[in-house]
Amino acid sequence: MTGFLLMGFSDNHELQILQALLFLVTYLLGSAGNFIIITIITLDPQLQSPMYYFLKHLSILDLSSLSVTVPQYVESSLARSGYISYGQCMLQVFFFTALASSEMAMLTVMSYDCYVAICLPLHYEVIMGPRKCTWAVAAVWLSGSMSGTLYTVSIHSIRFCGDKIIHQFFCDVSQLLKLSCSNDHFVIIGMIDFLSVITFACFIGIIISYVHIYSTVLRMPSAESRSKVFSTCLPHLFVVSLFLSTGFCAYLNPTSGSPSTLEFLFSVFYAVIPPTLNPLIYSLRNETIKSVVRKLLFNIKFDV
């Protein structure tokens, strides 16, 4: 077999069908939510600030991340195959790692935007000007592309042997390392360690930003101002916590030679749940987005 066999949670076909249907429903909900966020931010002039500009690109990353892994697994499971070619697997490694790295960078940029807006409001227009926001987003996408390229080149140098069975719903790097029959995998382990250091640096930057944010918020005399700031920043903090906690559990969990249900669940919480819940988290806590959505729904109902 030149490719790989994605086994997912179970090798029982009935369970695979049920799992594929659950993934399909989750994918449709997540795609719809992110598409709505992208659409309303693009079309509504009320949502043209840097915060919503970054949120739109976060939704693009989430939508793309879901589309890289879930549809292919759903299609192969429903076709009773589970097969994925070597080329498709390498493409998944590239796009998934690139999008995950870009999302980490985007969350860091968004935390800095919150910090400037709350702690340095008089300098906000200068620091977060349109040109600088465009360069920040370009840097986010470029850094993700570089990470994806490094991962893919490292994985491509590995020789695989034995049964090419991946007990996962996509070509996960940690699962591919288990199939290595040479010492070449030390290269990719070194790459993972290097990028983990960069991720940790982003995490420290986010923590520092929020320490300054909440120390400033607690000094605000107005309860209404504090509530407004919390409604804007708490969704971002929750998204960061969800993304990082599930990601660390997925990649820092010790792997064994035998398939692990826990590893599969960690990957689901890392790769599927955050991009599906992000639109809901932001829309529930952000009054501006809720008002725009209500206005959009009212107009649609009125036109009908």
Automatic annotation (TrEMBL):
Predominant location category: membrane
Keywords: Cell membrane, G-protein coupled receptor, Membrane, Olfaction, Receptor, Sensory transduction, Transducer, Transmembrane, Transmembrane helix
GO molecular function: G protein-coupled receptor activity; odorant binding; olfactory receptor activity
Domain (G-protein coupled receptors family 1 profile) ranges: 33-282
Membrane disposition: Multi-pass membrane protein
Top-level division of the source organism's lineage: Eukaryota
InterPro entries per record: GPCR_Rhodpsn, GPCR_Rhodpsn_7TM, Olfact_rcpt, Olfactory_GPCR
GO cellular component: plasma membrane
Transmembrane annotation, as ranges: 20-41, 94-122, 134-153, 186-213, 234-253, 265-284
One Pfam family this sequence matches: 7tm_4
Localization: Cell membrane
Job of this protein: Odorant receptor.
Protein name, as recorded: Olfactory receptor family 14 subfamily J member 3D
Organism: Rattus norvegicus
Lineage, highest ranks first: Eukaryota, Metazoa, Chordata, Craniata, Vertebrata
